[in-house]
# Entry
Amino acid sequence: MRAVHPIHGLTSTGCPPSRLRRLGAWKARYRRRPAPAMLLCAALLLSACAGPREDSRTATPPAAGRSRIAVFPLENLSGRVAPSREIRGLFLARLRSAGFEVLDDERLDQVMTRHRVRYTAGVDREAALALKKEEAVEAVLVPSLEWYDETDPPKAAMFSRLVSTGDSPAVLWIDGVGLAGDDAPGLLGLGLVGDPNVLLARAADALVGSLVRDVSAGKNLAGSEGPRKFRPKLVYRSDALIPDKRYTVAVAPFFNKTDRKYAGEIMALHLIRNLMAFQNFEIVEPGLVRQELLRFRIIMTEGISLPETETILNAVHADLVLNGEVLDYRDYRGPEGVAKVDFSVLLIERRTRQIVYSSYSQNQGDDGVLVFDWGRVNTAHAMASHMARAIGRAMLQAGRRGR
Amino acid sequence: MATRPASVRKGAFFSMSTRMTCLLLSMVLPLSTSCAPTVTRSAYRDPNMDFGVIKTVAVMPFHNLSRESVAADRVRDVFINRLLSTGAVYVLPVGEVARGVARTEILNPSAPSPEEVVRLATAVKAQAVITGVVREYGEVRSGSSAAAAISISVQMLEGQTGKTVWTASSTKGGIDVWDRLFGGGGRPMNDVTRDAVNDVIQKLFK
# Structure
């Protein structure tokens, strides 16, 4: 693992401000002589920075007096070797600099050993209670690595969520980021990133920054509607799903029919993250759902059945269970290729025991791309995120009450 | 020498030609009628079936005859979504169907026997069971041209008797004249799949 260089002072486009200033000066110089051909060239070159990418915002300045949190080991969903410890180290450093009091590893290990906590991709009731009582930890940060590829241009995609401790753990915040080295090539390829560590640092910055902002603001923001092309291709929505009502949703594991390991878990995280952005949905911590599935020895052979739905919903006190299957979830290595995502979603209601929402989504990174890769999406993470957000809006019909 | 007027000669010629045409037509017409298709259609509806009583259906896993491994799952997903969105029938969740299949011990869920259909329909409380076959799914090639193509067939079996009450098939996509002349690779697979499923479902509600 090479040394990680923290990147400070980046803009929302991922371009350093000095470069943007230079660009501004260049534009001001030529404003007096607006040759049409020159303007056209500039527009085309600038358009290379304008794909529907994930946010890669910087961490906000440190703020004192924040909560005491524990950081679980990184859940590696990439299905390949990745610098897990280093990535967790990035999170720890950024959280401490943002003013969070982070439980040290030794004490965390002691609690986990004492309570035989083996599963660290979620927080179950016992672990949450133990951390609260024994170490006065208020929340647990669960980082997940979705994709990591060092091949030039490098790619990295990550999730992170904050779960409350105590007797009823709940997801307080979740966000994700997917970055590729060629997301914003800019003028003459000056924006290209060749070092995977830079991407990892940017991803950690973006996630911790989002957490700090969210904790400060006390709420999420649904954001813009996103490109039309990411809307589900087929939608069924029952009238039983009331847009103004607040629902508690349990997300059951998705069925993975792809050759990508953990695609089901990744898709579930995308939906949790994006449904959390709407104030109509409260999401049950996936660790709790898993605990109940194990407790009732529920093994889903192909999909979730109605008795299983009822059992899960009663156990976690939820109104809806979200389930689905992933048919394709593909990232590509190197500069050539196209990301693909293909999945279907099913939402079953507790009261009627019926499907209230069902949709089928399928996209690939070069959908709607006509010239100069304008609008191209380089990571499956970024694409799946847009698609999941569009599903949330379709459930609530035109994104009503987005928060 | 007395010659016949031109009009008479012309008339003789035309009468000769007309006779030949008539003769040819009388020979070609019976031959061409033998080429006409027999009474076959891409859909069948049992005329004695009251489709109004079908409120809930179970869609079984589709049988996959194509080279694409997830083609059957993909088409089944699209089919279930489209059928649900018509609002005419309720489609059981796939997990509930899988549970019914396991409970009734159906050996081949994509081609159940009438007895198995009756057992399954009773177990999952469905009025009908739908099975399907994906015959072709993927890219077809002809020379330098390539395009997405799909061919599916679907049948509905009544839950009380296990009898086939409706069948339909559809083939969409493939290489057209435009693709041959200008290339372009045809339409996306997803669009072609949607068209084929729409076509099949329209045949149910006709």
